[in-house]
Write a structure and sequence with these properties.
Number of helices of chain A: 10
CATH class of chain B: Mainly Beta
Low-confidence stretches of chain A: 1-26
Mean pLDDT of chain B: 93
Low-confidence stretches of chain B: 9-16
Number of helices of chain B: 1
CATH architecture of the largest domain in chain A: 3-Layer(aba) Sandwich
Number of domains of chain B: 1
CATH superfamily of the largest domain in chain A: Response regulator
Radius of gyration of chain A: 24 Å
Strand content of chain B: over 45%
Order of helices and strands of chain A: HEHEHEHEEHEHEHEEEHHHEEEE
Structural class of chain A: alpha/beta
CATH superfamily of chain B: YVTN repeat-like/Quinoprotein amine dehydrogenase
Order of helices and strands of chain B: HEEEEEEEEEEEEEEEEEEEEEEEEEEEE
Helix content of chain A: 25-40%
Largest sheet of chain A: 5 strands, parallel
Mean pLDDT of chain A: 90
CATH architecture of chain B: 7 Propeller
CATH class of the largest domain in chain A: Alpha Beta
CATH topology of chain B: Methylamine Dehydrogenase, Chain H
Strand order of the largest sheet of chain A: 2-1-3-4-5
Structural class of chain B: mainly beta
Oligomer: heterodimer
Radius of gyration of chain B: 19 Å
Helix content of chain B: under 10%
Shape of chain B: globular
Largest sheet of chain B: 4 strands, antiparallel
Number of strands of chain B: 28
Distance between the termini of chain A: 78 Å
């Protein structure tokens, strides 16, 4: 009899356990709304028919980030939503941005041109929204044009150029032949290259502008050997952001020299051949979702969403001002498959990160190398350091 | 006098009979298994395995090895005597780390790409449960009392506490960025978790599932970015634990009572996983980049030898 009672009690106890346990799930789910704003740009003339034109750049990275955040969110009681807005060529991006803010979006990821970001930055500040730049690399957005609520996930041209310069310095490729295109972005990157050359004591012995406007596919073999004659140099450095002619420099230069910059060996935030530090998992997850490889903007977009997620989880808040303070604090870091924690520079809201030097099918090196010393972190040897900054937040 | 000589002879005979041990090491890039004699530190043999072999464990009766062949999406069963593959377990996609429950019956596998932990019944060779966990599940640990299985998720940055009776998650604890490996103290009251990116070791109270304290590793002359704690192993005496520090090329010896580092031991490059010899005299480390293992004298806390084993040694298991 007594035994019977015991068993009944045990049964009751087990029943109550099964009743109680499912209720441990978070009672209240807090929503976090994230907007992804894309400014469409005119498609540049195709250099070759090799690569398909992508229409989902960035959004695929952000979507994966949302998925990751929601997997975490099921344990912390947060749910993340993503709204994707595409602004057609020539239409007003600022009003699309404002509309999103009016709809209650406080976290906005933008993949826009430099001139557009300049207009969005003050809007973010005025409306107490946080803006995450995933595409613009141009330096002034991190300096004179910086904003207190604008975070730069994409590495700046200066960070990329410094990564190249450090590598060249190690190789003792001290003399550069600089070739740049006619686009404004080419000027920005060329300026960054000059700054880096000076910073690391390298010399630009020759500088030329590629102004040919015919299809380089047909005439590269004839034009480039002539074009690249001049002073002797160690490496040809190219600034052709849109890729209008740079691919044809390789093997066609007058002197047999390596090529680096926007073509050849390219400083990048992400590359399909990057596989260290668990990056293989990221590559696979992305490929499975998108049916293509992740690019720099996808990576930055994923990181932007993860930055928001990390801040929400750890600061236990969804208020922009609290998250901003947390993101800029010592406590914050986000993992980005680059072998070190990623944090933000408090003087210009730029994400610190290693830069990959990649050729078409391999990673040559991950910069900075440890020999480049810095009192704060070796990552601050890339880009604008605190004393150089013109950003006054 | 005569008696003494006999005793001495017996002793020396005993000493030479010190328990021999055999190490089985997965070679991630060679798709192979290295077999090493632990006492002499010699490579005995290399046997072929599936693609990208990583996690490895011995069956409870020690007649079989389980090896996660990550790129083949399977756990291979290898006969210890012949080193031949004799079967497979349905591990789910891209298995990396796994642990055998103390009951010898269940294997818990982290499937990195799918955000799940798969539970496999070893006898029936069936996957009996998929447990949804955080993003990129990595480390798995089973408490000695068999009451808890924990899994760490690298991108969610959590420890998920799994009840092995119901195979459901009972609690989640947020830890430092990129938690990799976990190990319980022998008395099952404390859990230790390494965080690769934060460069820290967290100490969690099992009863409350809360983080009690954290230890940040610092090595003079080594960049803090290079200190990336990965494998963690508790000495059964619950006095010392060992943490592999990845590209810092060192193993930290941590006093469990004071929760401070006693010593850093210089080993091979990118030290990853750790295992003891059965008599606890030696500690072995797999060093991914230098393609060798280091052998540490546990009593003296000195590195005595390194043995080349093949490309990217990853997992290690030791058999008497």
């Amino acid at each position: 009899m007594r035994k019977n009672i015991k068993i009944r009690w045990l049964g009751l106890f087990l029943c109550s356990l099964t009743l109680v346990l499912p209720m441990q799930v978070q009672a209240e789910v807090v929503n976090v709304k994230v907007a992804f704003l894309v400014e469409q740009t005119p498609t540049p003339p195709a250099l070759s028919n090799l690569d398909p034109v992508l229409t989902d750049v960035g959004i695929q990275g952000a979507t994966l980030g949302i998925k990751d955040n929601n997997t975490t969110g099921q344990f912390t009681g947060h749910h993340y939503d993503l709204k994707h807005v595409d602004v057609p060529v020539g239409e007003d991006v600022a009003s699309a941005f404002k509309q999103l803010v009016d709809e209650g979006y406080e976290y906005l990821i933008t993949s826009v041109q430099a001139s557009t970001l300049e207009k969005l930055t003050p809007l973010a500040t005025a409306n107490n929204a946080l803006l995450f730049n995933v595409a613009v690399a141009e330096g002034s957005q991190r300096n004179e044009q910086c904003g207190a609520n604008t975070f730069h996930i994409a590495p700046s041209y200066e960070m990329r150029a410094d990564a190249l310069a450090q590598f060249m310095l190690k190789k003792r490729w001290n003399k550069w032949f600089l070739v740049k295109g006619t686009d404004a972005e080419d000027d920005f990157f060329a300026a960054a290259l000059k700054r880096s050359a000076k910073r690391f004591g390298l010399k630009i012995v020759e500088e030329k502008k590629w102004t040919f406007d015919h299809d380089a596919r047909r005439t590269a073999q004839a034009d480039i050997p002539v074009f690249t004659q001049g002073e002797d140099y160690d490496v040809l450095v190219v600034a052709d952001v849109k890729g209008l002619f740079g691919e044809y420099l390789a093997m066609n230069t007058w002197l047999p020299r390596p090529i680096a910059g926007t073509q050849g060996m390219v400083p990048r935030a992400w590359h399909r051949t990057h596989e260290r530090w668990g990056a293989v998992q990221m590559q696979n997850r992305f490929y499975k979702q998108a049916g293509r490889w992740m690019n720099d903007i996808d990576y930055a977009s994923w990181l932007a969403v993860r930055t928001i997620g990390e801040a929400v989880t750890r600061a236990k808040s969804v208020e922009p001002q609290k998250l901003k303070a947390f993101i800029l604090s010592e406590e914050f870091s986000v993992a980005g498959f680059k072998g070190t924690k990623l944090t933000f520079r408090t003087w210009n809201n730029q994400l610190r990160q290693p830069v990959l030097l990649a050729t078409a099918r391999s990673i040559v090196s991950v910069m900075p190398h440890k020999e480049f010393l810095h009192p704060r972190t070796y990552l601050d040897t890339l880009g604008y350091d605190k004393p150089e900054s013109n950003c006054h937040l | 006098m005569f008696k003494n000589i006999i005793a001495a002879l017996c002793l020396s005979a005993l000493a030479s009979l010190a328990i021999a041990d055999t190490l089985y090491i997965t070679l991630e890039k060679d798709n192979a298994l290295a077999v090493v004699d632990g006492e002499s530190g010699t490579l005995l043999k290399t046997a072929p395995l599936g693609q990208r072999p990583r996690g490895i464990a011995l069956s409870k009766d020690e007649t079989q090895l389980y090896v996660a062949a990550s790129d083949d999406d399977t756990i291979q069963i290898i006969d210890v005597a012949t080193l031949k593959v004799v079967g497979d377990l349905p591990s789910g996609e891209d298995p990396e780390t796994f642990r055998l429950h103390k009951n010898g019956k269940y294997i818990y596998v982290s499937n990195e790409d799918d955000d799940i932990v798969t539970v496999i019944d070893v006898d029936s060779k069936q996957a009996i449960k998929e447990i949804a966990v955080g993003v990129e599940p990595e480390g798995i640990a089973v408490s000695d009392d068999g009451k808890w299985v924990v899994n760490t998720s690298e991108t969610t940055n959590m420890v998920h506490w799994i009840d092995p009776v119901s195979n459901t998650i009972k609690a989640n604890t947020l830890v430092d960025p990129r938690p990799r490996a976990a190990a319980f103290s022998t008395n099952s009251q404390t859990l230790y978790v390494t965080s690769e990116i934060a460069g820290s070791l967290s100490k969690l109270n099992v009863a409350s599932t809360k983080v009690e304290s954290k230890l940040h590793f610092k090595i003079q002359g080594v960049d803090k970015e290079l200190i990336q704690p990965v494998g963690v192993l508790v000495h059964p005496n619950d006095k010392l634990l060992f943490v592999a520090l990845g590209p810092a090329n060192r193993v930290a010896v941590v006093n469990m009572e004071t929760f401070e580092v006693e010593k850093y031991l210089l080993v091979g490059q990118r030290v990853w996983n750790l295992a003891f010899s059965p008599d606890l005299k030696r500690l072995y480390t797999t060093n991914g980049v230098s393609n060798d293992i280091s052998i540490i004298d546990v009593d003296d806390l000195k590195v005595t030898k390194s043995v080349r084993v093949g490309h990217y040694p990853w997992g290690i298991v030791v058999k008497k």
